[in-house]
Design brief:
Length: about 70
């Protein structure tokens, strides 16, 4: 399960990074290539930290007894 969540977070981090870099890369006075890596690392860290605060999702079909 953790691997699925990591993969989903990775995909979301890539999407957010691509959106953030659109227009900032490739021009004459654009950011250097390693800037993209720095942005991705920051987004990835923020998403991982935020995911830790999410409550655990119950598995479908299993009732929790309280």
């Amino acid at each position: 399960m953790a691997r699925e969540i990591d993969w989903q977070l990775f995909e979301k981090a890539a999407d957010i990074t691509a959106s953030a870099l659109r227009g900032a890369m490739g021009g004459g006075e654009s950011q250097p290539p390693d800037y993209a890596g720095e942005v991705f690392k920051a987004v990835w860290s923020a998403l991982k930290e935020a995911a830790e605060d999410l409550p655990d999702k119950p598995r479908a079909g299993f009732a929790t007894s309280a």
